[in-house]
Amino acid sequence: MVGTGYVGLVSGACFAETGVNVVCVDVDKNKIDNLEKGIMPVYEPGLEDMVIRNRDKDRMVFTTSLKDNLEDTEAVFIAVGTPPDEDGSADLKHVIEVAREIGRHMKHYMVIVTKSTVPIGTSIKVRETILEEQKKRGVSISFDVASNPEFLKEGSAIDDFLKPERIIVGAESEEAEKIMRRLYKPFVLNNHPIIFMDIRSAELTKYAANSMLATRISFMNDIANLCEIVGADINSVRRGIGSDSRIGNKFIYAGAGYGGSCFPKDVKALIRTSDENNYSLDILKAVENVNNRQKMVLFHKVMDHFKGDIKGRRFAIWGLSFKPNTDDMREAPVLVIIENLLRAGASVIGYDPVAMKEAKRKLGDSILYADDQYDAIVDADALLLVTEWNEFRTLNYKVISRLLKNKLIFDGRNLYEPTEMKEFGFSYYSIGRKTVLQP
After folding, report:
1. Domains of the chain, start order
2. Residues with catalytic annotation?
3. Is the per-residue pLDDT at 83 higher than 90?
4. Roughly what angle, to the nearest 10 degrees, separates helices 199-230 and 282-294?
5. Alpha-carbon span 360 to 365, nearest angstrom
6. pTM for this prediction
7. Helix (H) or strand (E) holding 76
8. Exposed, middle or buried, 129 (CB in 10 Å: 0-12/13-18/19+)?
9. Of 362, 354, 419, 417, nearest in space to 390 by CA
């Protein structure tokens, strides 16, 4: 497993859990040293215990050297990062470098599997790179390339891998399919489907899946904004359409916009791929535009309430990660909110159950950091709820009333009920619902 980030480490640990011997490779020596000590580079419930358990049983080993670990390898999974370039396309330099390393040092047949989310046609580039390196060596060693996109949700990734809704594999030969079937056999014993297809279709499936989910989110956020204008309630609309079995109730919650390592990057990459092929994915372009606008909604509500002047005011923020049960802040809506609050002259104090270390790395001393959720609101002019962690779901109204300078809450995830807010004397703003204003 080349790459010990989120995807590589979760995948490696879950394979090891079924008895597979896994070598986790990363160029970052510090990360490898920490993994050997049981220190995880990412937060994911259950991951630390699983890694340590399989490390102690010698089913997971960690190294910086790929070439020294190809001798008995049947499959190499490429799970390195593919960050977006400035033009929105996925940066494949790490994927190609792994392919070069394999081509330089492989000695027998193996399957090279792209686990990273990669654009359509990446398998061809991987194959060409390996062949090029073999040619330089003057050898011709048989190999296959396969695509095996991940469908892991941060916060429930272990369960997603061990009990998958489906496993997608793009394979180009019977031998490659045979190896992949054997690897995934423990995960399909309960009739979870493994779906084989051509490699290009497998590569596209990942992007299409994330783009569909992003589309649902942006659609609901757009409808939520209309609800506020016409006096409707997005929660009622959500229940109404979610009861339709053709639609269902997943990913139709309005909020402050989507973020994370997948949706923004994958939407951008798919748009870029379509543009390169002279076809415009207009729906996805709208999805991206709506999401960028939605990240500003909470800030605009703050500015409207304070009549455009928040200079010198202090705002408490609950939730810094892009979603609960992760410390990931990549493309998090809170980053846009904080940036605009600071630019307008306000100060910010933040709290998150898990992401405090990551927040300090990203934001430095530009904001203050609280020890707990109630410490954050002391003398704040308002509370902004941005991430729907469970511990934020039930409010102690008496404590909040005493600690907040103003009884004012901006709810970016619709966690609270307007009727309760009115009952306890709070002014309350949410997404796609009527605002509660106290006299």
Report:
1. 6-197 (3.40.50.720), 207-293 (1.10.1040.10), 295-429 (3.40.50.720)
2. 262
3. no
4. 50
5. 7
6. 0.90
7. strand 75-78
8. buried
9. 354
